[in-house]
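pasting for the record
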Amino acid sequence: TPEQLCWSMMEATGQVAAQRNAGIADFNKKNPLKEGAKEDAARQAARAKHVEKFVYDKLKGNTAAFIKLFGGAAGEPQTDFYATADQALFFTNGSTIRGWLSTLSARLVKITEPKPLAEELYLTILTRRPTAAESALVEKLLADPKQKSAAITDIAWGLLTSSEFRFNH
């Protein structure tokens, strides 16, 4: 569904993790642990519930654009796939996706070696390890250190907009 695609992209680019961390900080600020008290199961459950709601409330607004672009029109089957020019333009030029990719790129640019970077990139987005050919391609694309951040963003964009991501995640 369009909603699943949106949430999968937010998960893969680190948006959900960032909001999850913010939700934990928000819970701890609103519910400080008493001095000398231990973390109990009830507090952990309350924190988990708070964090889940916090993440959902912060990110749910992103789904509207995906529903508009990727949902079928009224009266059309919602299970059929078809690509449109609007979808392609959204992925290519959309500030939403580009912003999400910059967050991911900022995290991955810290990895200095190409092979571990390729592995982290593929595991993060496609939840699988890259093949030898894919690792070699990533290494080739990362050859220029001045363009490392841009190369990571481009590779991540390619993986996020791939058929493999869309239909498997």
